[in-house]
Amino acid sequence: MKTVRTSAGLADAVAPWKSVGAKIAFVPTMGALHEGHLSLIALARRNAPRVVASIFVNPTQFAPHEDFDSYPRHPERDAALLSRAGCDLLFIPDRETVYPPGFGTWIDPQGAALGLESAVRPHFFRGVATVVARLFALVRPDIAVFGEKDAQQLAVVRQLVRDLDFPVEIVGGPIVREADGLAMSSRNNYLSPEERQRAVRLSRALAQARARFECGERRSEVLCEAVTQELAADPEIVLHYVEVVDPDTFVPVEKVDRQAVVALAAKIGSTRLIDNIRLEG
Ligand code: AMP
Hints:
With 281 residues, the protein is α/β, with parallel strands linked by helices. The chain is 39% helix and 20% strand. Strand 5 (143-147), helix 7 (151-164) and strand 6 (169-173) form a beta-alpha-beta unit. Helix 6 crosses helix 7 and helix 8 (193-214) runs antiparallel to helix 9 (220-232). Adenosine monophosphate binds at residues 29-30, 36-37, 39-40, 146-147, 149-150, 173, 175-176, 183-186.
Protein backbone atom coordinates (compact mmCIF):
# COMPACT_ATOMS: atom_id res chain seq x y z
CA MET A 1 0.00 0.00 0.00
CA LYS A 2 1.24 3.43 -0.93
CA THR A 3 0.70 6.50 1.27
CA VAL A 4 0.30 9.96 -0.25
CA ARG A 5 -0.17 13.28 1.49
CA THR A 6 -0.66 15.86 -1.28
CA SER A 7 -3.27 16.33 -4.00
CA ALA A 8 -0.51 15.99 -6.64
CA GLY A 9 0.68 12.72 -5.06
CA LEU A 10 -2.88 11.45 -4.98
CA ALA A 11 -3.51 12.43 -8.62
CA ASP A 12 -0.29 10.66 -9.71
CA ALA A 13 -1.21 7.51 -7.79
CA VAL A 14 -4.72 7.19 -9.22
CA ALA A 15 -3.85 8.30 -12.80
CA PRO A 16 -2.77 4.81 -14.00
CA TRP A 17 -5.99 3.29 -12.61
CA LYS A 18 -8.13 5.99 -14.20
CA SER A 19 -6.35 5.56 -17.53
CA VAL A 20 -7.33 1.88 -17.75
CA GLY A 21 -10.84 2.55 -16.41
CA ALA A 22 -10.31 0.60 -13.16
CA LYS A 23 -13.03 1.52 -10.69
CA ILE A 24 -11.99 3.12 -7.42
CA ALA A 25 -13.82 2.56 -4.13
CA PHE A 26 -13.11 5.13 -1.44
CA VAL A 27 -13.37 4.81 2.35
CA PRO A 28 -13.03 8.15 4.17
CA THR A 29 -12.09 7.89 7.87
CA MET A 30 -10.76 9.97 10.73
CA GLY A 31 -8.28 7.24 11.69
CA ALA A 32 -7.93 5.41 15.03
CA LEU A 33 -9.12 2.46 13.04
CA HIS A 34 -10.98 -0.58 14.33
CA GLU A 35 -12.73 -3.60 12.84
CA GLY A 36 -15.68 -1.39 11.81
CA HIS A 37 -13.47 0.64 9.49
CA LEU A 38 -11.71 -2.47 8.20
CA SER A 39 -15.06 -4.07 7.33
CA LEU A 40 -15.66 -1.06 5.05
CA ILE A 41 -12.31 -1.69 3.34
CA ALA A 42 -13.37 -5.31 2.76
CA LEU A 43 -16.72 -4.10 1.39
CA ALA A 44 -14.92 -1.59 -0.86
CA ARG A 45 -12.72 -4.46 -2.14
CA ARG A 46 -15.80 -6.43 -3.08
CA ASN A 47 -17.13 -3.44 -5.02
CA ALA A 48 -14.07 -2.28 -6.96
CA PRO A 49 -10.60 -3.47 -8.01
CA ARG A 50 -8.90 -0.44 -6.42
CA VAL A 51 -9.43 0.81 -2.86
CA VAL A 52 -8.42 4.20 -1.51
CA ALA A 53 -8.79 5.14 2.17
CA SER A 54 -8.25 8.55 3.72
CA ILE A 55 -7.39 9.60 7.23
CA PHE A 56 -8.32 13.18 8.00
CA VAL A 57 -9.56 14.45 11.34
CA ASN A 58 -11.82 17.09 9.86
CA PRO A 59 -11.61 20.25 11.98
CA THR A 60 -14.78 21.75 10.51
CA GLN A 61 -17.10 19.11 11.94
CA PHE A 62 -15.95 19.71 15.52
CA ALA A 63 -17.38 22.48 17.69
CA PRO A 64 -14.81 24.45 19.74
CA HIS A 65 -15.74 22.54 22.93
CA GLU A 66 -15.46 19.12 21.22
CA ASP A 67 -12.56 16.67 21.05
CA PHE A 68 -10.67 17.76 17.90
CA ASP A 69 -7.33 18.16 19.73
CA SER A 70 -7.65 15.00 21.77
CA TYR A 71 -9.11 12.82 18.98
CA PRO A 72 -6.92 9.65 18.88
CA ARG A 73 -4.29 9.75 16.11
CA HIS A 74 -2.27 6.61 15.29
CA PRO A 75 -1.38 6.97 11.59
CA GLU A 76 1.36 4.31 11.56
CA ARG A 77 -0.75 1.67 13.24
CA ASP A 78 -3.67 2.63 10.96
CA ALA A 79 -1.52 2.31 7.84
CA ALA A 80 -0.45 -1.22 8.86
CA LEU A 81 -4.09 -2.22 9.47
CA LEU A 82 -5.24 -0.77 6.14
CA SER A 83 -2.47 -2.46 4.24
CA ARG A 84 -3.35 -5.83 5.78
CA ALA A 85 -7.04 -5.26 5.03
CA GLY A 86 -6.32 -4.88 1.31
CA CYS A 87 -6.28 -1.11 0.84
CA ASP A 88 -4.22 0.00 -2.20
CA LEU A 89 -3.69 3.66 -1.42
CA LEU A 90 -3.84 5.74 1.77
CA PHE A 91 -4.41 9.48 1.51
CA ILE A 92 -3.42 11.50 4.60
CA PRO A 93 -3.94 15.13 3.61
CA ASP A 94 -3.06 18.03 5.85
CA ARG A 95 -5.53 20.79 6.60
CA GLU A 96 -4.31 23.06 3.76
CA THR A 97 -4.75 20.31 1.18
CA VAL A 98 -8.40 19.89 2.08
CA TYR A 99 -9.04 23.56 2.84
CA PRO A 100 -6.53 25.59 0.76
CA PRO A 101 -5.84 29.22 1.71
CA GLY A 102 -8.84 31.34 0.77
CA PHE A 103 -11.25 28.40 0.96
CA GLY A 104 -14.72 29.88 1.26
CA THR A 105 -17.38 27.47 0.03
CA TRP A 106 -19.53 25.50 2.44
CA ILE A 107 -22.22 22.92 1.89
CA ASP A 108 -25.01 23.41 4.35
CA PRO A 109 -27.24 20.33 4.08
CA GLN A 110 -30.88 20.44 5.12
CA GLY A 111 -33.36 17.56 4.80
CA ALA A 112 -31.74 14.46 6.31
CA ALA A 113 -29.34 16.70 8.24
CA LEU A 114 -32.09 18.29 10.32
CA GLY A 115 -32.81 17.10 13.85
CA LEU A 116 -31.11 14.32 15.88
CA GLU A 117 -27.34 14.97 15.67
CA SER A 118 -27.90 18.53 14.41
CA ALA A 119 -29.94 19.41 17.48
CA VAL A 120 -26.88 18.78 19.67
CA ARG A 121 -24.15 19.54 17.08
CA PRO A 122 -25.59 22.34 14.89
CA HIS A 123 -22.57 22.70 12.54
CA PHE A 124 -21.65 19.04 12.34
CA PHE A 125 -23.22 18.10 9.01
CA ARG A 126 -22.03 21.32 7.34
CA GLY A 127 -18.50 20.17 8.17
CA VAL A 128 -19.21 16.59 7.10
CA ALA A 129 -20.90 17.50 3.80
CA THR A 130 -18.15 19.99 2.91
CA VAL A 131 -15.28 17.62 3.68
CA VAL A 132 -16.97 14.74 1.83
CA ALA A 133 -17.41 16.99 -1.22
CA ARG A 134 -13.75 18.06 -1.01
CA LEU A 135 -12.50 14.49 -0.62
CA PHE A 136 -14.67 13.36 -3.54
CA ALA A 137 -13.20 16.18 -5.66
CA LEU A 138 -9.66 15.11 -4.73
CA VAL A 139 -10.04 11.31 -4.95
CA ARG A 140 -12.68 11.20 -7.73
CA PRO A 141 -13.93 7.75 -6.66
CA ASP A 142 -16.55 5.69 -8.51
CA ILE A 143 -17.87 4.24 -5.25
CA ALA A 144 -17.69 5.52 -1.68
CA VAL A 145 -18.33 3.34 1.35
CA PHE A 146 -19.79 4.67 4.61
CA GLY A 147 -20.85 2.87 7.78
CA GLU A 148 -24.43 2.49 8.95
CA LYS A 149 -23.03 3.19 12.43
CA ASP A 150 -23.36 6.87 11.49
CA ALA A 151 -26.79 6.38 9.97
CA GLN A 152 -27.73 10.04 9.74
CA GLN A 153 -24.37 10.85 8.17
CA LEU A 154 -24.98 8.12 5.59
CA ALA A 155 -28.40 9.63 4.79
CA VAL A 156 -26.84 13.11 4.50
CA VAL A 157 -24.12 11.81 2.15
CA ARG A 158 -26.69 10.03 -0.01
CA GLN A 159 -28.70 13.26 -0.17
CA LEU A 160 -25.57 15.30 -1.01
CA VAL A 161 -24.72 12.97 -3.89
CA ARG A 162 -28.32 13.00 -5.14
CA ASP A 163 -28.81 16.77 -4.83
CA LEU A 164 -25.49 17.77 -6.39
CA ASP A 165 -25.31 14.91 -8.90
CA PHE A 166 -21.92 13.65 -7.79
CA PRO A 167 -20.92 10.77 -10.07
CA VAL A 168 -20.34 8.48 -7.07
CA GLU A 169 -22.25 5.40 -5.94
CA ILE A 170 -22.73 5.32 -2.16
CA VAL A 171 -22.55 1.93 -0.46
CA GLY A 172 -23.49 1.47 3.22
CA GLY A 173 -21.78 -1.11 5.44
CA PRO A 174 -23.40 -2.77 8.48
CA ILE A 175 -22.40 -1.84 12.05
CA VAL A 176 -19.58 -3.92 13.50
CA ARG A 177 -19.97 -4.55 17.23
CA GLU A 178 -17.84 -5.77 20.11
CA ALA A 179 -18.69 -9.24 21.45
CA ASP A 180 -20.99 -7.72 24.10
CA GLY A 181 -22.89 -5.62 21.56
CA LEU A 182 -21.23 -2.20 21.93
CA ALA A 183 -20.92 -0.60 18.49
CA MET A 184 -17.23 -0.15 17.67
CA SER A 185 -16.15 3.49 17.67
CA SER A 186 -12.84 5.34 17.87
CA ARG A 187 -14.39 7.24 20.77
CA ASN A 188 -14.79 4.02 22.80
CA ASN A 189 -11.08 4.61 23.55
CA TYR A 190 -12.14 7.45 25.84
CA LEU A 191 -14.21 5.22 28.14
CA SER A 192 -12.79 4.21 31.51
CA PRO A 193 -13.13 0.46 32.26
CA GLU A 194 -16.18 1.23 34.37
CA GLU A 195 -17.76 3.42 31.67
CA ARG A 196 -16.98 0.74 29.10
CA GLN A 197 -19.12 -1.68 31.10
CA ARG A 198 -21.93 0.87 31.34
CA ALA A 199 -21.79 1.49 27.58
CA VAL A 200 -23.16 -2.00 26.85
CA ARG A 201 -26.51 -0.65 27.94
CA LEU A 202 -26.85 1.39 24.73
CA SER A 203 -26.99 -1.64 22.45
CA ARG A 204 -29.02 -3.51 25.07
CA ALA A 205 -31.58 -0.67 25.02
CA LEU A 206 -31.83 -0.88 21.24
CA ALA A 207 -32.20 -4.66 21.56
CA GLN A 208 -35.17 -4.05 23.89
CA ALA A 209 -36.77 -1.93 21.16
CA ARG A 210 -36.12 -4.69 18.65
CA ALA A 211 -37.64 -7.29 20.97
CA ARG A 212 -40.80 -5.18 21.30
CA PHE A 213 -40.89 -4.75 17.52
CA GLU A 214 -40.54 -8.50 17.02
CA CYS A 215 -43.47 -9.03 19.38
CA GLY A 216 -45.57 -6.92 17.00
CA GLU A 217 -45.21 -3.42 18.45
CA ARG A 218 -45.14 -0.81 15.67
CA ARG A 219 -45.70 2.46 17.54
CA SER A 220 -42.50 4.53 17.56
CA GLU A 221 -43.35 6.08 20.89
CA VAL A 222 -43.53 2.69 22.58
CA LEU A 223 -40.32 1.49 20.90
CA CYS A 224 -38.55 4.63 22.14
CA GLU A 225 -39.94 4.03 25.63
CA ALA A 226 -38.29 0.61 25.66
CA VAL A 227 -34.98 2.38 25.03
CA THR A 228 -35.49 5.16 27.59
CA GLN A 229 -36.55 2.66 30.26
CA GLU A 230 -33.46 0.54 29.81
CA LEU A 231 -31.17 3.59 29.88
CA ALA A 232 -32.95 5.17 32.84
CA ALA A 233 -31.76 2.22 34.95
CA ASP A 234 -28.28 3.79 34.87
CA PRO A 235 -28.32 7.39 36.11
CA GLU A 236 -24.78 7.92 34.77
CA ILE A 237 -26.05 7.60 31.20
CA VAL A 238 -27.43 10.86 29.81
CA LEU A 239 -29.66 10.25 26.80
CA HIS A 240 -29.46 13.02 24.17
CA TYR A 241 -32.12 11.58 21.90
CA VAL A 242 -33.81 8.41 20.77
CA GLU A 243 -35.95 8.58 17.65
CA VAL A 244 -37.49 6.30 15.07
CA VAL A 245 -36.85 7.74 11.63
CA ASP A 246 -37.02 6.96 7.94
CA PRO A 247 -33.51 5.74 6.95
CA ASP A 248 -33.36 7.95 3.83
CA THR A 249 -34.94 11.21 4.96
CA PHE A 250 -34.32 10.95 8.69
CA VAL A 251 -37.81 12.31 9.22
CA PRO A 252 -39.37 10.80 12.38
CA VAL A 253 -42.06 8.19 11.74
CA GLU A 254 -44.99 7.49 14.07
CA LYS A 255 -45.32 3.86 13.09
CA VAL A 256 -42.86 1.34 11.72
CA ASP A 257 -44.80 0.14 8.69
CA ARG A 258 -41.74 0.13 6.40
CA GLN A 259 -37.99 0.16 6.98
CA ALA A 260 -37.01 2.42 9.86
CA VAL A 261 -34.00 3.27 12.00
CA VAL A 262 -34.07 3.60 15.77
CA ALA A 263 -31.22 6.02 16.48
CA LEU A 264 -29.88 7.20 19.80
CA ALA A 265 -27.10 9.34 21.22
CA ALA A 266 -26.05 9.33 24.85
CA LYS A 267 -23.27 10.60 27.02
CA ILE A 268 -21.39 8.38 29.44
CA GLY A 269 -19.08 10.52 31.56
CA SER A 270 -17.58 12.94 29.05
CA THR A 271 -17.88 10.57 26.07
CA ARG A 272 -20.72 10.94 23.61
CA LEU A 273 -21.69 7.77 21.76
CA ILE A 274 -24.23 7.05 19.03
CA ASP A 275 -25.83 3.78 17.96
CA ASN A 276 -28.80 2.59 15.94
CA ILE A 277 -30.67 -0.43 14.68
CA ARG A 278 -32.62 -0.98 11.51
CA LEU A 279 -36.15 -2.41 11.66
CA GLU A 280 -37.74 -4.01 8.59
CA GLY A 281 -41.37 -2.91 8.92
P1 AMP B 1 -14.90 7.78 11.45
O1 AMP B 1 -13.45 7.43 11.38
O2 AMP B 1 -15.49 7.63 12.82
O3 AMP B 1 -15.22 9.08 10.77
O4 AMP B 1 -15.64 6.68 10.59
C1 AMP B 1 -15.27 6.41 9.26
C2 AMP B 1 -16.28 5.50 8.65
O5 AMP B 1 -16.33 4.28 9.39
C3 AMP B 1 -17.70 6.08 8.68
O6 AMP B 1 -18.35 5.79 7.46
C4 AMP B 1 -18.34 5.36 9.83
O7 AMP B 1 -19.74 5.24 9.71
C5 AMP B 1 -17.67 4.00 9.74
N1 AMP B 1 -17.74 3.27 11.01
C6 AMP B 1 -17.38 3.73 12.24
N2 AMP B 1 -17.65 2.81 13.17
C7 AMP B 1 -18.19 1.74 12.53
C8 AMP B 1 -18.70 0.47 12.95
N3 AMP B 1 -18.70 0.10 14.24
N4 AMP B 1 -19.18 -0.36 12.02
C9 AMP B 1 -19.20 0.00 10.70
N5 AMP B 1 -18.75 1.18 10.24
C10 AMP B 1 -18.26 2.04 11.14
